[in-house]
UniProtKB/TrEMBL annotation:
ATP-binding as UniProt keyword: no
Cleavable signal peptide: 1-25
The organism of origin for this protein: Roseibium salinum
Swiss-Prot/TrEMBL keywords: Signal
Superkingdom: Bacteria
SUPFAM superfamilies, per database record: Periplasmic binding protein-like II
Lineage: Bacteria, Pseudomonadati, Pseudomonadota, Alphaproteobacteria, Hyphomicrobiales
Keyword Cell inner membrane assigned: no
Record-given protein name: ABC transporter substrate-binding protein
Gene3D superfamilies registered for this protein in UniProt: Periplasmic binding protein-like II
Length: 270
């Protein structure tokens, strides 16, 4: 009798183990790749932070109640590497990215995560740049730092800037800021609401930044996307839950709180 009971226990254990293994095999792993861009998404003491990060994580929590989804990794990568990862691997979640005609068929577009608008900035006291438009800049002897592979980089090349020798491709906006304050470029693009704090965070005087030209053609919302080979049920659930959560005002509240906190933190303001 005792031997039979032991056999039953063993069988139950094997069955439960197989069930757990099957459930794990059916789970949907999501790999998150982003470029650090505070206060939208950034690494704070080795933990993801930012208002878009908070929004996306809350959406994932909601989605996980109906689907066996889990985050396999959350990685901060250079822009081009993050973009290529999202282009070529399944179940990759990528944010925050501009939605353009060239990118339309590259991803599943899930929903807007942040407003976005940039100016070209110069340093106060530097060379005067008499430009009223983007086209004016093309005919001036100025060096423009621009993130390699970005939406802006592609736009400027379309306008003929590449042949002018004005463009200085860089890895990311942190490098642009460094180069501007070191006198290696004359202009850099930065988000109007966050330019001062971005410079302060790198140890520079953000108050020295002066807007020159608004980049009107690229003033559009940023999005979250899934890679093309992502599980269809996940894309549908994520799109739905993003819209539902946004309707509650959650994203607007998070953005307001994080932007104000970031400005104070970056520039030492109380």
């Amino acid at each position: 009798m005792r031997s039979q009971l032991c056999n039953v226990v063993r069988i139950v254990g094997v069955v439960l183990g197989l069930q757990c293994a099957a459930a794990q095999a059916e789970s949907i792993p999501v790999r998150i790749v982003v470029q650090s861009f505070a206060p939208l998404q950034w690494e704070n003491d080795r933990r993801p932070d930012g208002y878009v990060t908070e929004y996306i994580q809350s959406v994932l929590d909601r989605v996980s109640k109906g689907l066996p989804v889990y985050v396999s990794s959350f990685e901060f990568l250079p822009w081009k590497r993050a973009l290529l990862t999202a282009e070529n691997e399944p179940n990759v979640l990528f944010f925050s990215i501009s939605r353009t005609r060239e990118r339309e068929d590259m991803f599943h577009w899930l929903g807007e995560v942040s407003p976005y608008g940039q100016y070209f900035y110069r340093l106060a006291g530097g060379p005067d740049i008499g430009a009223q438009s983007i086209d004016d800049l093309r005919n001036l002897d100025v060096k423009i730092g621009v993130q390699d592979g970005s939406n802006l980089h592609a736009y400027l090349k379309q306008l003929g800037f590449e042949g002018s020798g004005n463009l200085v491709p860089v890895t990311d906006y942190h490098q642009e800021i460094e180069m501007l304050f070191r006198g290696r470029v004359d202009l850099i693009p930065l988000s109007g609401a966050l330019a001062e704090a971005a410079a302060c965070k790198q140890g520079f005087d953000g108050g020295q930044l002066e807007p020159v030209v608004f980049i009107e053609a690229l003033a559009q919302p940023l999005w979250a996307v899934f890679s093309k080979d992502t599980d269809a049920s996940l894309v549908t659930a994520f799109t739905r839950e993003m819209a539902v959560l946004k309707e509650t005002g959650f994203l607007d509240r998070e953005r307001s709180e994080h932007v104000e906190r970031w400005r104070k933190r970056a520039c030492g303001k109380r």
